[in-house]
Amino acid sequence: MHDYLFYVSRMLSGGPGGLFVVQCFVLFYSASAICGHFARSGPMAAAMGVGLVALFFLFPTLAGTVIVLWKDVVVVSFSLAAIATWLSGVRRFQWWKFFCVFFFLIIAISLRYNALPLVLPFMLLTVINPAGRASDTRKRIGALAGAMLVLSVSYATTLWRLPDFKRLPPVGNLVGVINLWDLTGVSACENLNLLPEGLESGERIPAADFKRIFDSRHLNITFTNPIWQAHVPRWGVDASAIQAQWRTVIREHPLCYLKIRNAVFLEQFGLHRHQVFYPTHSGIDGNKFGLQLAYPARTSALVQDIVAWSNSPLRRIYLLHAVALVLAVIAVWINRWRYDLLFALGLGIIGFVGLLYFAAPAADARYVFPSGVFSALLAILALGRITMWIRAKRPVPTTEGENSSRRLS
Predict the structure, then answer these.
(1) Average pLDDT over residues 186-208
(2) What's CA 263's distance to the chain center, in Å?
(3) CB proximity list for 339: less than 8 A, separation 6 or greater
(4) For a 10 Å CB count at each end of the chain, is N or C smaller?
């Protein structure tokens, strides 16, 4: 899907820079539209929008990701576009808006399949309430069909390409690679060689070496370790053997499995004292297309600042997630626990982070960008609802004349 977006940008003479501008515009415009829907006045809408942008500067891993042409950014852009379009349809229903909601969701999920738990609670909300007060059985059935279409088309993009629908070759077995990374980590934790028999090309890797091999930051760092490459220049077994061994190992060594998954989680969310891993990307690799940075010196300075800022203990991304969820609980309680957008955003964040905990192939800061942006939006929306609730609880000031009239009446 990302290739298609690059292709469209190139056809429109935008090139990679065009896609960068569009993804940023869609992200911030959609987020501002969502804030504007919930604000009761122009100044409040402006304050919510400015607050959202400020969070990108306060938490540098958000800014560090948004300046790079990573799929994670486009996932969020089209997810927010779907939410903004749905809110517009709730206010004033039109069928073209209805169809655009599911079109945007198809793009978002096709870009990265871990976007599914992020937007699934929102998809459920569109089925429950597809058109606000104009919702009826027909629209709810249509929304359910749209949700099924989103899942079907997103899966189909892994099998066929557009526009000729040619069957795509099978991709590498990412699940098997992640399982092998887990096995390496558990081996380091237990001081045992728990790899499947036959994986190594010669002698088995000594148990003591796994602590030097396993790196919780990234599976590529682990598998490019010289010790690993000396013993495993290529897999000696297929992915099914690795997955079978993985299932056995996590049953027999669950505590060590959770320990190494915690290590990845701590790296990813900055829950440690050392430097945040990979908060941004510093440039463009040499390529045959002649693509290069327009302002390399400025880019280098910005990257250095983001790396330095991201290491502040008060600017780690886990804080944004935690604050957003706490504010969301208060805001949802104010709304009498009704299943609304804030509820759906909170569930999406929890589902996304939960999947990352068990399936992340690396601890890059960019992997939590989608849940980070949803957390930023959730925090702003929750603060807005709490502020309006507090204002509604305040007594309305009256003049002395009005008080006298009330006493006489």
Answers:
(1) 96
(2) 19
(3) 125, 128
(4) C
